[in-house]
Structure to design on (674 residues):
């Protein structure tokens, strides 16, 4: 059904009211997380857009603290799975165990049965464990024995990868990385932020507790509104231009990128970009998407979906470099 | 004496009986011959062996005969067959039919060798298939070796003889080379032409100054009454595109590839443009709402947006004029209209 200007105005007002919790969440998380606003914002985008987030950053950047705090603020269940080479799929999804007293097998649910999952160092576990997790992420359900269990909504997986240790790791295949809506690269806090972190950690009263500000049901409702955010045809074309420029850069006067790209974004990239742009607009308390929304989340949606050639790697060209070139070449509507 | 005469008569009678078959043979309707052109050759030298067969058809009226010449192998009894002609029918004269075949023979063994009797066969095709056969007379041939004068000294081995270079000897190679060059040239020319076709034609360079063109385009947009016809989105798209193109060409800001927020940020270094920042922000924000949120601004806002655009361009005119004088890049095309619908 075609949206009229009146519909969009009403939707805008509705979203303006409904998205007020975003500010509340930011305030609450700000009590314990110093800096890392970018990461927290991306986590919320993933949460609202029903996508999962792959985090890349060195240890000690408050990755665990962020997602734990987020789950506390939303009053949701949180699980942390440390991925190791000897981890088994059953350790993630659960298994059947024999109950001697009852003389029957009963299901023991794994840590995946939570709203927020932190899959720490996902690339340390072998492929079968990774695929078990990724399957659960995609299907939002797991099967143990003969029984299939639906995972609770909201369900958000935050997987982390350590970029500095590659020995003894199982790199995620491109097809599985593509299942993550966002790949967020986080850096060190600033000097001032780190000074706050020291003070906060050495506080004699201990860390401030996070109070729940919303419920998981509110997130589910917010997701419905995110879906309704108006996206104009011009924005859709802009998204497609960006994704197609990663596949056929020569069509966008970017012939020099052709030898650097081995493969471009998949249709899932276009979908994710549209979803994430809508979520971003929602978080900015708007009922419509503007080009800024697309550009703001473009790097996080696209960086793991652009394959680099050996030539690019030899020249130290990153996917971010390529995306910058593309964004500077594709006309904004 | 009488007894002697009787003995002679008896002897003659006996001789007559003995010679009777030869007499009959001489009267045979089928006669074959083998004849060589020489009876002496040097080793390796060739000789011609002519085989002929004559049939007397008068003696067998109504008969239909077929002659089969001897089928010599390529090599036989010190002889090699070098060449053989086909069977030649010489024609029919006075009821006689003549056949001929010539073989070229050679021998590489010295000595006196005999070409053996060769067997001819004649079939009667109208009868029961019975045949008669006849043989040629054997022919002796002397095959001599080359005489070597042993009294003389050995002669040295002759050096390699050089052949005079002649154009005619190499013409096939030259023709092939020339053909290859022509084919390669044609291929190169074809590819060059194809590539030239692919290359887009250079866009015509407009001599109209950027400022003048922008003002003209804004006036055209105003007179076209786009928003009055209900095309609000198109109106704001064209309006902002004209302005962005102006900023890009006049101030070197990649405005067409920037969002509103980025553009407002990037005009800061351009003082004269930055002075109109609020006006520009108001215009671009309203345009964004019209373009992306289906906002329907009031007619006053449409008019006001046009005035603001004109004012921004007019305000930057002093900067635009010297910049044009310094030879800033001319617009990509004459219209400068980047309407995106």
């Amino acid at each position: 059904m075609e949206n009229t200007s009146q519909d969009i105005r009403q939707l805008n007002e509705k979203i303006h009211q409904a998205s007020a919790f975003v500010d509340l969440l930011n305030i609450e998380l700000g009590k314990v997380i110093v800096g890392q606003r970018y990461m927290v914002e991306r986590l919320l985008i993933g949460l609202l857009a029903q996508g999962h987030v792959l985090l890349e950053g060195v240890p000690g950047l408050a990755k665990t603290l962020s997602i734990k705090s987020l789950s506390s603020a939303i009053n949701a269940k949180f699980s942390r799975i440390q991925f190791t080479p000897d981890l088994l799929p059953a350790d993630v999804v659960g298994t059947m165990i024999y109950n001697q007293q009852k003389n029957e097998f009963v299901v023991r649910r794994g840590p995946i049965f939570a709203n927020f999952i932190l899959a720490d160092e996902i690339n340390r576990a072998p492929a079968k464990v990774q695929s078990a997790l990724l399957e659960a992420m995609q299907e939002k359900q797991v099967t143990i024995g003969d029984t299939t269990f639906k995972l609770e909504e909201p369900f958000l997986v935050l997987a982390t990868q350590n970029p500095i240790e590659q020995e003894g790791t199982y790199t995620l295949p491109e097809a599985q990385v593509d299942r993550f809506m966002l790949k967020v690269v986080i850096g060190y806090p600033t000097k001032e932020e780190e000074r706050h972190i020291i003070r906060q950690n050495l506080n004699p009263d201990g860390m401030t507790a996070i109070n729940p500000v919303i419920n998981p049901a509110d997130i589910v409702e917010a997701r419905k509104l995110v879906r309704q955010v108006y996206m104009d045809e011009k924005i859709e074309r802009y998204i497609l231009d960006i994704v197609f420029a990663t596949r056929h850069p020569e069509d966008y006067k970017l012939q020099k990128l052709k030898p650097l790209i081995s493969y471009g974004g998949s249709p899932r990239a276009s979908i994710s970009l549209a979803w994430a742009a809508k979520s971003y607009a929602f978080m900015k308390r708007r009922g419509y998407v503007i080009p800024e929304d697309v550009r703001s989340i473009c790097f996080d949606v696209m960086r793991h979906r652009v394959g680099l050639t050996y030539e690019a790697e030899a020249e130290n060209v990153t996917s971010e470099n390529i995306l910058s070139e593309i964004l500077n070449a594709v006309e904004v509507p | 004496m009488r007894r002697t005469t009787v003995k002679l008569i008896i002897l003659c009678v006996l001789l007559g009986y003995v010679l009777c078959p030869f007499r009959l043979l001489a009267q045979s309707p089928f006669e074959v011959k083998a004849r060589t052109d020489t009876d002496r050759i040097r080793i390796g030298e060739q000789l011609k062996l002519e085989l002929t067969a004559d049939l007397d058809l008068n003696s067998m009226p109504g008969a239909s005969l077929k002659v089969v010449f001897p089928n010599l192998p390529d090599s036989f009894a010190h002889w090699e067959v070098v060449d053989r002609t086909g069977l030649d029918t010489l024609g029919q004269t006075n009821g006689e039919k003549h056949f001929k075949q010539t073989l070229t023979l050679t021998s590489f063994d010295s000595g006196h060798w005999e070409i053996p009797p060769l067997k001819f066969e004649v079939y009667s095709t109208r009868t029961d298939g019975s045949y008669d056969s006849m043989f040629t007379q054997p022919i002796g041939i002397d095959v001599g070796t080359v005489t070597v004068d042993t009294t003389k000294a050995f002669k040295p081995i002759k050096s390699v003889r050089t052949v005079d270079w002649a154009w005619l000897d190499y013409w096939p190679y030259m023709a092939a080379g020339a053909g290859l060059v022509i084919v390669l040239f044609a291929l190169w020319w074809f590819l060059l032409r194809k590539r030239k076709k692919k290359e887009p034609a250079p866009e015509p360079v407009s001599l109209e100054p950027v400022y003048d063109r922008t003002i003209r385009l804004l006036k055209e947009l105003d007179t076209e009454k786009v928003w009055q016809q209900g095309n609000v989105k198109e109106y704001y798209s064209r309006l902002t595109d004209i302005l962005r193109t102006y900023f890009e060409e006049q101030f070197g800001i990649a405005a067409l590839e920037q969002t509103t927020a980025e553009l407002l940020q990037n005009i800061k270094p351009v003082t004269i443009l930055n002075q109109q920042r609020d006006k520009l922000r108001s215009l671009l924000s309203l345009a964004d709402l019209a373009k992306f949120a289906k906002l329907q601004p009031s007619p006053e806002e449409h008019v006001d947006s046009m005035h603001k655009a004109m004012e921004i361009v007019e305000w930057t005119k002093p900067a635009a004029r010297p910049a044009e004088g310094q030879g800033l890049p001319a617009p990509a095309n004459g219209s400068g209209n980047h309407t995106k619908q």
